Every structure is written in structure tokens, then in C-alpha cells.
Amino acid sequence: MSARVPPRKPALLARGSWGETRRIADILRKETVGGALLLIGAVLAMIWANSPWADVYEMARDLRFGPEALHLNLSLATWAGDGLLAIFFFVAGLELKREFVAGDLRDARRAAIPIAAALGGVAVPALLYLLITSGVEGAARGWAIPTATDIAFALAVLAVIGRFLPAALRTFLLTLAVVDDLVAIVIIALFYTEHLTPLPLVAALVPLALFTVLVQRRVRSWWLLLPLAAVTWALVHASGVHATVAGVLLAFAVPVLRSDKAGGPEAGPGLAEHFEHRFRPLSAGVAVPVFAFLSAGVAVGGLDGLAGAFGDPVVLGVAVGLVAGKPLGIMVATWLMSRFTRADLDEGLTWIDMLGLSILAGIGFTVSLLIGELAFGPGQDAHVKVAVLAGSLAAALLATVILRLRNHTYRRIHQLETIDRDHDGIPDVYETDGSTATGR
To answer: What's the pTM value of the predicted model, to 2 decimals?
Structure first.
């Protein structure tokens, strides 16, 4: 009879269970590729928008198509923001539900620290933005722009830094980004819905309910599910609520755990994991890069144009919020939680690692650009785009410097996390600390 493993003391940067670590590593590989494509899309957009053919880029963004009778005669840029990003938020919703139902976040002690860090990373940049833009007419609408973390962009930076970053750092960043996505969804639904039409919103409950019934019965037939999802999306769009919210509602309907033949729940992957495997490559490889390509293009106008942009309090508010507010909020919230829970950093890690990770979370690209468009409207958010791009780039460079300084330590931890003396497929460190309990 094996000895009972005592519960682990909560850690600020814990590697988690072996099952979660392996699953997160798979997610991060896909998101890293998506991050590289996102960067390519953004760079191409910037080059095109500042070339002699800039008018062609704007014409492509403004190209309209779709049925007018269904309120879907939209520009190409709007289709990317409302349509393609619904796929992104569908995958984010699946990941969020997975974490809280079957992942390490179902443990309240583990969940408390990254949730607090994410909330701190939303509140402080928003407050800094409002402080800097105080007295500027209409600027307050952009308060949520510097609150988001772009996980794909951040992971692309991690891939450049090196492949030896400890599992604890990657896990904490992904967990924080998942909670960050949930906050972004709530913000978009509550604060960026200007004209609500109740009838389509109520009508959307019908296809959503049918979709829920089918997925709860483990139906995977795309010819049944996709039309219901499309109708739900179209009705939410017609209601005035941002259509990406439909992606989250659909994701929350999907079961995380599979069922046995008797109909009862059974621990193990369910339909959510199946959908995530199918749609994550579409989200990371198509939806987000295309949105970046159609949103990031802004005419800078040379050094004079940049100087003029940074004279705008909105630009300063967004950039300072991302580069300073985001890490400050995460660090303060994490430190307070460490005092309250008496949690320690994992072995080998220090507060400088938390600082590097917090600065990396200041990369706010995809959702920040989306909120910028919602706050100021397409065509009126050029300065916001400059601020998001500049702030995200500065955060990426600062995080790279800090994390690279710790590369020797990360190599040592990586070696420890890959030793498997008994050759059972599970690194020894996950067996000796009792962390194989979840998801082995």
C-alpha cells in the first residue's frame, strides 16, 4: 500500500500535474505557430498600408458582401472582426471551460492566484489609461484597450527566447491568458453593446438550445451543428451584442467530460477536446492572422506621424497601460495573494521570473485591436493601432531581455523536468511531488 501524498502547498509558479503539462505543451505548440503567422500578417499589413498601394489595402478592407436582409452586408474587415474572431472566442471558451471543469483550475487554491493576477492585470492598466486621458473628450471609451493579453503573440516571443522555459512559466502564462479572455468577453458584452435589439437576442436562444441538446448527447455531425452555430451567431450579431459573444456561448454548451454507456459522466476527454483539436488550428492559423492582417495596417506617416501620434493622450494611455500597467497589476495582485495564501514560488524560480512573465502579458494585440475598433470605430482608431503595436513591441522586447538573463536557470530546470529514470513516459519530478494525480 503506497503512502498517502500530502497536499502540496500552493505555489505562485507551479508546474501543475503531468497531464495538464502535457496538454498545455500541445496547445502552446499550436499557438506558437499561430503567433508566428499573426506577426507575419501584422507586418505585411503595416508594409502595405505604408506603401504606394495603400489605397488598395483600404479598398480591400472596405469591400462589402453578404445578405442585406439579414443585416450581414458587412465589410471584409468587419467579417474578420465579427466572424473569424468568433472562432477564436469559441476556442477560448472551450479552453476556459476545460480548465475549470477538468483542469488544474478546478482546484480553488490553484485557481485563486492566476485569477487574481489576471484581474489585477485588467484593473491597473484601465485605471492608468483613465488617469492619463482624463479630460480628453471621448477618450474614456477606450479604457479596456490595454487590458488584454494576446497569448499567440506572447508565445511567439517565447519561441524566440528559447525552448527551455520551465513548464511553470508557460502554464501560468496560459492560465492567466485564459482568465484574461473571459474578462475581455464580459467587457465586450457589457460595455461595448450600444444598441440592443432584444428580439434577435431572445431568438438566438432557440438554435443555441438545440445546439446544446445535440452536443450534450455527444452528436458530432457537422451538418447539424454548424448551421445551428451560424444561426446563433447571426442572431446575436443582429441583436447589437458583439457577435464574438456567440462563440463563447456555444463553447460553454459543449461537454468537457465524456459519458459512459449508462449515460453517467466519466473522467476523461469529452466533446470539448474533440472540437478544440478541430478548431484551434483554424483559429490560430487562419482566423487570428487574417484579422491581424486586416486590422493592423495603419499609415504611420514617418517620424513626424509617429511623433504626432504619441502626442495623443489616448496613445500614451494605451502604451503605458500595456507596458507598465499590465505588469504592475499582475505583480501587485500576485504579491498580495502570496501574502494571503502563504504561497511560495516554485523551486528555482524568483520574483524576477514573475516580472518577466508579467511584462510579457503586456502584449495585447488581437483583442486590444478589436476593442479599439469597438471603442472608436473603424477608420477613427489609427492612433490606437499605433499605440497597441508600439506597446506590444516594447513589452515583448523588455520581457525578452529579462527572461533571457535567466536562461541558464531555465536550462537547469528543463533538464530536471525531462529526467525519466524508470522510462515510464512520465518525468520523475511529476511522480516524486505527487503531481501525476490529475490527467495521467
So the answer is: 0.83
